[in-house]
Amino acid sequence: MRIEPTTLAGVVVIIPSRHSDDRGYFCELFCEDFFRSQVADVRFVQDNQSLCSRPATVRGLHYQRSPVQQGKLVTVPRGAIFDVAVDLRTNSSTFGDWFGMVLSAENGFQIWISEGFAHGFMSLEPDTITNYKVTAPYSASHEGGIAWDDPDIGIRWPIAGPVIVSPKDASQPRLKEMHADAPVHHQEVAPCV
């Protein structure tokens, strides 16, 4: 496995090694010892999976508040997504900045998003499956969200035009409505595509 840092501390790209032959390939997706020593010293407690039937489906931007904040390890075994992390750590120099990249079954990339970030993604292909391991179980009383199209954050989603989004995600607040005392930085964070 190879690890690549991103423009946001706490967000790391993981590239598993694929061993290919005429049958296909084999790769190790997760090794606890490697992950805990090289990426983050955490334990995962739950695996989640979502299916997006159509391209341009947006899920997010979601997070959980303390004491059940979640770190997430995201991978895509079928299809492709544009995966996004937004820094919500008000004491961070990159508060309000985002990082995005394509995760796909073809490239095999994974992304680690530590606690303190909102997470969301847009499906790029039909019948896309997204898996994510999380460090805390879901808690309805601690869930939060930010508008996926918040202009102050300025995520450059790869599919323009109509998107498919749940009523709940369509009505999430903007970041400045939640953190009026913490100005959003306007540092440009280039996505890895």
Q: In terms of per-residue confidence, which ranges show pLDDT below 50 for 5 or more consecutive residues?
A: 182-193
For the largest sheet, list the strands in their spatial order: 1-2-10-7-12-5
Number of domains: 1
Named CATH architecture = Sandwich
Order of helices and strands, N to C? EEEEHEEEEEEEEEHH
Question: Could you characterize what this model shows?
Answer:
- The structure is a single chain.
- The two termini are 20 Å apart.
- The chain is mostly beta strands and 193 residues long.
- The protein has a single domain (2-18, 27-150, 158-178), classed as Sandwich (Jelly Rolls), CATH 2.60.120.
- A hairpin with a 2-residue loop joins β3 (18-21) and β4.
- It has helices at 32-38, 167-170, 175-178; strands at residues 2-5, 11-15, 18-21, 24-27, 46-52, 58-64, 72-78, 80-87, 98-104, 110-113, 117-123, 128-134, 143-145.
What descriptive keywords fit this protein?
mainly beta, 3 helices, six-stranded antiparallel sheet, Jelly Rolls, 193 residues
Topology:
Layout (H helix, E strand, L loop, with lengths): L1 E4 L5 E5 L2 E4 L2 E4 L4 H7 L7 E7 L5 E7 L7 E7 L1 E8 L10 E7 L5 E4 L3 E7 L4 E7 L8 E3 L21 H4 L4 H4 L15
Antiparallel strand pairs: 1-2, 2-10, 3-4, 5-12, 6-11, 6-13, 7-10, 7-12, 8-9, 8-11
Summarize the structure.
With 193 residues, the protein is mostly beta strands. Helix content is 8%, strand content 38%.
